[in-house]
Structures are given as C-alpha cells and as structure tokens.
Amino acid sequence: MVAMAQMQQSIAQTKSSSIGERVAALNWTAILSNLDDHGCATTEPLLTPKECTILAESYDSDQLFRSRIVMARHGFGRGEYKYFAYPLPQIVVALRDSLFPALAQVANRWNKALGIEVTYPSTHATYLRRCHADGQSKPTPLLLRYGPGDFNCLHQDIYGENIFPLQVAFLLSEPERDFTGGEFLLTEQRPRMQSRAEVVPLRQGEGVIFPVHHRPVRGASRTYRVNMRHGVSRLRSGCRHTLGIIFHDAA
Questions:
Q1: For residues 42 and 209, is the Cβ–Cβ distance under 8 A?
Q2: E strands, 9-61, where?
Q3: Which helix (H) or strand (E) holds 130?
Q4: What are the residue ranges spanned by the domains of the chain?
Q5: Rounded distance between C-alpha atoms, residue 26 and residue 34, angstroms
Q6: At what angle do helices 4-12 and 49-57 cross, to 10 degrees?
Q7: How far is Cα 118 from Cα 160, in angstroms, rounded to an integer?
Q8: Which residues contact 90 (CB under 8 A, 6 or more apart)?
Q9: Fold type of domain 4-246
Q10: Are strands 206-211 and 166-171 parallel, antiparallel or unpaired?
C-alpha cells in the first residue's frame, strides 16, 4: 500500500481536463438511448487501473472523509462506506463536473415528460450553489467497501429537497481477480406490474449511470413514472470497492 501522502498527491494530480476529455469521448448516443430504453447505461472503462487502485486504497485514510457508515447497524445490508469531506479529491470533482452537463439534459427531459417543473442548470457548480443555498452543503460522493458475505440492500440515495435524478457508480476492483459475486442490481416497479430486475456487469473503472428514485416510461397512451431502486448482491469472496458519484449534496 502506498503512503497516505502519496495517495493524496496522486489523486490530486489527476487533471480535470483528462477526465473531461474521456467523458466527452464516451458514446453518448448509446448512453442516452440506454437510459431511456432500459433505465441505466454503462460508460465503458473510464478510470484507469492506477486511478482505481489509488481511490480504493484511500479508503483507509480518515482524513479524506466526513463520516463512516457500517451498513449492518442501520439495516442497510453488510459492508461499509465513507462520505468524502470537502475539499473533494480532484478526480471526484472532475467526474462530477464533466458528467453533469449531459446528464442535466436527460434530467430536464425526464422531468418535462413527467410534468415536473424543476429544471437543472448546465453546470454542476451552479447546481451546487442551489443545494447550498437551501441548506444542503454536505458532500455526497462516497467510497464503498464490501468483503465476503457483504451486500447492499435495494435503496434510493435521497438526501434533501434538491435531488438530482441520476447518479453514477464506478467499480474500482477487478471482477474475478479481486472479488466474486457482488453484482450491481437495479429494480424497476411499474404501476400494477411486478418488479423488473436487471443485473449490470461492470469492469474495473467502468461506471453505471442510473436513476436515483424514478424515471419516465412511455406507455400505450401516456408517459408514467416508475420507481427505481439499486443495490449490490452478496459478495462470494474477496474485496470490492466502488466510487459513488451523487450530484446533489446532503442536508
């Protein structure tokens, strides 16, 4: 394990422009289509193996985080996670800033389809000012760690009145090498229908974009709202780390 000072320096040296260029190069046509059609989309590997390792190893530094949650104490599942403190690592800031504009367009289109009057600005900095003005000033990006037998119950990440409708989870570990099991799960509850479940395979450095709590679905005669929840299945072996990018801050 590298020393903590080296971790912090390595994370800080990741250039925002590099992350922004990678995000801009994503196949956004396919991403937007998958979000509309299936309620989730993957990014292809966006973070390098080195970046994933540095972020995963930073979990052991309490200096970077504002709080630690042990899931079993709250009935959330098994495993634990930590919320980053401000100032966030530069790589986390860059991911928030570069992913937000395209996702804000999706969020605005979805809200319009559902008759929701809330709209989102084109930059994340502007949106954060809205959150902070309303008393939501605690950072929400987080790192999650799972060991053998750990899992995350199906849930929604809602932290206040200002809720950005989409979030992204990046797998930092290598499946089959670092862990087995631990699949990302997404469920969708349509009105008067049984829940639909989806398992999303991820590679190291790849992100999955998905709704925080609901999305629009076009029916035969109208567009209706479907509720979404996400979680992680039981880890069979090893250790699994994930970076969660949530765009609204918490109260």
A1: yes
A2: 41-45
A3: helix 124-133
A4: 4-246
A5: 13
A6: 130
A7: 14
A8: 11, 12, 13, 14, 15, 16
A9: Jelly Rolls (2.60.120)
A10: antiparallel
Task: Give pLDDT, residue 12.
Answer: 52
Helix (H, G, I), strand (E, B) or coil at 62: helix
Please name the amino acid found at residue 180. Answer: T
Written as six digits, the tokens of 172 are 């930092």
pLDDT bin (cut points 50, 70, 90) of residue 9 is low
**Is the C-alpha dihedral spanning 67, 73, 77, 78 positive or negative?**
positive
Asked whether 240 and 178 are in contact (CB, 8 A), the reply is yes
Q: Which amino acid makes up residue 216?
A: P
Looking up tokens 């939501």 gives 136
User: pTM for the whole thing?
Assistant: 0.93
Give the separation between CA 127 and CA 232, rounded to whole angstroms.
29
Written as one letter, the residue type at 193 is: M
What would the two tokens of residue 109 be? 């289109």
The β-bridge relationship of strands 151-155 and 235-238 is: unpaired
